[in-house]
Structures are given as structure tokens and as C-alpha cells.
Amino acid sequence: MSVVTLVSGGLDSTLVTYLAKEEGLLIHPLFVNYGQRALERELRACKRAMTKLSLNNLEIANLAGYGALIRSGLTDPSQHIIEDAFTPGRNMLFLLVASAHAFKVGADAVSIGLLHEETALFPDQTSGFLREAESLIGRIMGRQIRVLAPLASFHKDEVIALARMKGIEGTYSCHMGDEEPCGNCIACNEFKIEEA
Length: 196
What we know:
Blueprint: E1 2-6, H1 11-22, E2 26-33, H2 39-52, E3 59-62, H3 64-69, H4 90-105, E4 109-111, H5 127-141, E5 146-148, H6 156-165, H7 186-195
Parallel strand pairs: 1-2, 1-4, 2-3, 4-5
């Protein structure tokens, strides 16, 4: 089986790609530039992780105009990183682009690093969203492309523990994009909650 893995340089998507490699899947990693504030650091971390996995086929979808149009705390420094974090349609955009890429490279599935539904803050982080997205993708692509969320039964503390066990390091998960993680955005707060 072959899979397009959505990779961001963060812990969750990096772990998803490690797991796919361990399963012996043919991996097509895809990084989406959606105009995020943390683009530079995310992409750098992503490239390091893919190099460590000997995946030299990383593709980058340049969709920076999305963040310029759909402004949020993740794309616009003038907005609040937490209160304005919801970026409408972001995960659907990711899955649509990944599925179109899967169609072109002949992959069977796309993979996204969403965690347990109990951790969902937004409507596009739920199992219902994933089921409906898979159905819609099959309709618009004219063939089934599975939508996988290998970490959907995991909470962040379990992801952190598994990543440590696998020796994963050097990821970047802060939405601000500064050299040192801000400690306040949603991504940083996930680590705080799970360590408490």
C-alpha cells in the first residue's frame, strides 16, 4: 500500500510517518504551505525528519494565498494566536490537496496526524469529519482514496511517549514560528496539559 502522509515538522505528523515507514508502506510525504506563521521552522523540522527517515521525495504544496485570504491566529500576526486559532477549512484543504496528489502518484490513502476525538477543539478534527471527507474525496476523485488518522486513539501524552520510544526528536510544534516555542499557543499548550 502507498500513502501520502501530510507532514508539518510537528511531533504528530512526524510520528505518523515513522509508523508508516515501520509498516513498510510506500510513503509520499507532503508539506502544505498554507501561509502559516511558523512556515520556516516547520519546513526546516520537516526536512530534517524526512532526511532521517531516508525519504527524499518530500513535496511542498505552495498554497500561501490561503492564509492571506483566510486570516487566523495561525496565519496573521495581527490576530490572537489562541482566540483566533480556528482556520476554517484548513484540514479539508490538507486532505483535498493530499488526495489530489495521491491520485496523481497512484497512492491508496492519505494520512493526517489528528489525535483522539476527545482532544478536538475544532469541527475538522473529528471522526465524523474524517468519514465525510473520505466519502467526498472518493466522489470527486472518482476512486476510493482512504483517509487515515493513525493517531486517532491517542492522547498527546501517549504520542509523546511513543515518539520518545522511537527516538523522534527535533520536531517543531509552535504556531508562532519563533526560535523558542512560545509556550502559549494551542500546540504548545497541548504539551503542557499532557505533562501536568
